[in-house]
Write a structure and sequence with these properties.
InterPro entries: Metallo-depent_PP-like. The chain has 146 residues and is α/β, with parallel strands linked by helices. It has 2 domains: 1-83; 85-146, no CATH class. 34% of the residues lie in helices and 11% in strands. The chain is built from 4 helices and 5 strands, in the order βββαβαβαα. The chain has helices spanning 31-44, 65-78, 97-109, 137-144, and strands at 7-11, 18-19, 25-26, 51-55, 82-83. The strands form 2 sheets. The protein has a 3-stranded parallel beta sheet, with helices on one face. The protein has a two-stranded antiparallel sheet with strand order 2-3. A hairpin with a 5-residue loop joins strand 2 (18-19) and strand 3 (25-26). Helix 1 runs parallel beside helix 2. The N and C termini lie close together (12 Å). 19% of the residues are buried.
Length: 146
């Protein structure tokens, strides 16, 4: 039986709560507390490799010490877990091969100039936006072996 591992998308930063591109509420400051509760629960249930994604909303992150502390706090919670957003266009330097491959992947699936815009995409295709990501090929091979 295939069991889906836990998944978390922590969008923590020290800014007021807001909304996503699609209008979904985002609770930025409170997300670290929720993540810490989730990690305690995963550990209590012996989840060894929950799939995770640690995201500080890049549109809001500044170069302030508070931004650095917010990112460090989230990374500290995820330091033992698999990053389910390893294949992405924004988490790598622009010249990194992973960012280039993710960009090509998006170009094939999202016709919008602004790749963060899901307009015109329907159903599951709405996931093909720049702020999303996925496990990479090496992680897929690892998951297939477990």
């Amino acid at each position: 039986m295939l069991v889906q591992p836990p998944n978390a998308d922590a969008q923590h930063t020290d800014i007021p709560d807001g909304r996503s591109f699609l209008g979904v509420p985002r609770y930025y400051r409170h997300s670290l507390t929720v993540l810490q509760r989730a990690v305690r629960s995963w550990n209590a249930h012996n989840h060894k490799h929950p799939m995770t994604a640690a995201v500080a909303p890049s549109a809001f992150v500044s170069t302030s010490d508070r931004s650095l502390l917010a990112v460090q706090a989230v990374v500290a919670e995820f330091d033992r877990f698999l990053d389910a957003y390893d294949f992405n266009a924004v988490g790598w330097s622009r010249d990194h091969p992973m960012a280039a491959a993710a960009g090509r992947f998006l170009d094939k699936r999202n016709p919008n100039t602004d790749k963060n815009n899901p307009s015109g995409l329907a159903g599951v295709a709405r996931r093909f936006v720049m702020f999303n990501g996925a496990v990479c090929e090496a992680q897929l091979r690892w998951l297939d072996g477990n």
